[in-house]
Amino acid sequence: MFKLTATIAKDVRILLRDKVGISLMFIMPIILVVVVTSIQNSTFQLVNKNKLSIIINNSDTGQASKQLIKAIDKIGMFKATQVTGDQSEQKIAEAMHQQDAMLGVIIPPNFSAKVSAKSKSVAGKALKSFGLEGDSVKNAGDVDPLTVYYNPVLQENIRLSVQGALRSALQLVQSRETLRSLYFSINEKELPEKLENEMLNNKTAINEIPVSKDGTRTTPNATQHNVPAWTIFAMFFIIMSLGGSVVREKVSGSFIRLKTLPTNYLVGMASKQITYLAVTMLQAIVIFSIGIWIFPYVGLPALNLPSDVFALVLVTVVCGWCAVSYAMCVGVYAQTQEQANGFGAVSIVILACIGGLMVPSFAMQGFFKSAANISPMHWCLQAYYSLFLEGGKLKDVLNNILLLFIITLLLQVLTYVGLKRKNLI
Amino acid sequence: MGLTPELAIDVNNIGFRYPGNPDVSFSHLNLKVNKGERFGLFGPNGAGKTTLISLMTGLLKADEGSIKLLGHDIGKNKNSVNKLFGFIPQDFSFYHELSPVENLEFFGAWSGLDKQTVKRRTDELLTILGLNNVRDKQVQKFSGGMKRRVNLAIGVIHNPPILFLDEPTVGVDVQTGRAIIDYLLVLNKGGTTLVYTSHQLNEAEDLCEEVALIDGGKIIAQDNLKHLLKTHNQDNLEQMFLNLTGKEYRN
After folding, report:
1. What SS3 string covers chain A?
2. Do A309 and A263 share a structural domain?
3. Is B115 in contact with A2 (Cβ distance < 8 A)?
4. Which of A14, A253, A257 sits opposite B98 (nearest CB)?
5. Of A251, A340, B175, B238, which residue is the least packed, with the fewest Cβ within 10 Å?
6. pLDDT one-digit tens code per residue, B7-60
7. Which domain holds residue A299?
């Protein structure tokens, strides 16, 4: 037992004196989790709570354009400001900049007249198909397109939502005009407003309900997404300290000297695993604590821990052990500390990318979707998401734990083979 | 019939070849070192000294033959055989981030000592080797000579009956070199068998009583130092060394 405790004491002392390693293992992930959560939280707020500011330049003088502006306003997604004057791209850009607007919409001149002509033409065709006489059917040309300018920072999914919302407003205006034309052609009087509203307004509500395995109705937020993801990243980043430590022992000749002593080197490997597993647990405790207690003070949503705390601890331990095993494996095969650090850092970023920490794995396609399966971080993340976002229990993450365990054992075997091949044990 | 001295090391008919590198190889090599002897192993670069020490300490495994330390086969029961010797490598093979006390605690534990013995031996060795005033300072701030003394202390913490020393004084000043040699002589008086290798042949003459010259994987001469010098009609070890191994460069 003294051998093991003395070895752990040695590893802890070396670790505590590795200031750069400690910074990389603790300070860097804390900065990452705060910064990324803040940025994503702003996007969440922008899309979910704040309205997108939009400027509308209307050169049309008719009713249809006024109805369109009203319909855009009614969507509830935009904070609309009307501007007048030059419709050149440069002027619109200036106006957007002045108003701090993300979007600019140009309604072309004669928009109402063309919408009206098109509606009458459609109504005439409809009446003719019913066998009724209406106004003579003239083929009207297409309505000139609306032009939408956008700030390039807007992500594609937001732009698609904007496009969908504008189409819906446009559709409403055109349908209203067609309906009025039809009604007027048949009854030779104006469509009553009440009837018009009844016919056009969609009364079917859409209920949005987040589903979770434990029946809770907590809406996922940037904190619930980012804190688990960057905790995993932090755990795997111990390679910067542990990988280098293994290489230093090899290069300095300590491994060789230890081989001449009456102790099996597996004691040394066990000590490193115990020490660094404790580090990964500490990383998780620190980052989760920041999420729970510090985040609300910086305007971020607080982290809600999963209801199944045992499952959370188990997943964290297995993730940590997998991260430690990966770091040791890289350390054993690397020839120099530079190799271990360089390969370690790059490989962690790649594993994080394909594992879904930076881009959600459901958004990946083809090869990359399959590649996600080889990243241990993917299985860690899936387990954490099941617990943090879906309210999962131990039974829901058992498969992930098993797969992580298998990957860990494979890494341990690879490490052992590497030590044997290099005549280090 | 006289008594045969007990052997500390018995290298018996060993063969060894590095995989893919035939430059250094041994074939039917024999070497015997008596218990309590101060034995010097010398040879030019690439002669096979380090390989032979690696074989005797179990770092490499002979392809054939056997090596026994105090009658125990080096290849069998590693944990008990490894207690029989200490190894002081040429490199500073310890943890530079740790202090001498911390290094000795760790290596003492791995040498099979209990906590109390480690503490007692640490105090003794740091006093003997003049490191008591820096016992808690990180070794990375030490001079080369101080690091050599730490290297030596680690190798002898468990009081091994056999001590392998691979250039234990390389790169140190005269004072430190003398102090190390004096300490090795003290250890030898206490019964420790010394197996020493170095390129500093003047120093070797002071320390060794029995020497072997190795070149090309073969032992080309082995005897009592004084007898060997007399046999080869040489005044000192360096002259004899050059006479037997030649003056051309070795890689």
Report:
1. CHHHHHHHHHHHHHHHCCHHHHHHHHHHHHHHHHHHHHHHHHHHHHHHHCCEEEEEEECCCCHHHHHHHHHHHHHCCEEEEEECCCCCHHHHHHHHHHHCCCEEEEECCCHHHHHHHHHHHHHHHHHHHHCCCCCCCCCCCCCCCCEEEECCCCCHHHHHHHHHHHHHHHHHHHHHHHHHHHHHHHHCCCCCHHHHHHHHCCCCCCCCCCCCCCCCCCCCCHHHHHHHHHHHHHHHCCHHHHHHHHHHHHHHCHHHHHHCCCCCHHHHHHHHHHHHHHHHHHHHHHHHHHHHHHHHHHCCCCCCCCCCHHHHHHHHHHHHHHHHHHHHHHHHHCCCHHHHHHHHHHHHHHHHHHCCCCCCHHHCCHHHHHHHHHCHHHHHHHHHHHHHCCCCCHHHHHHHHHHHHHHHHHHHHHHHHHHHHCCCC
2. yes
3. yes
4. A14
5. B175
6. 999 999 999 988 877 666 888 899 999 999 999 998 888 778 888 999 999 988
7. 2-43+219-421
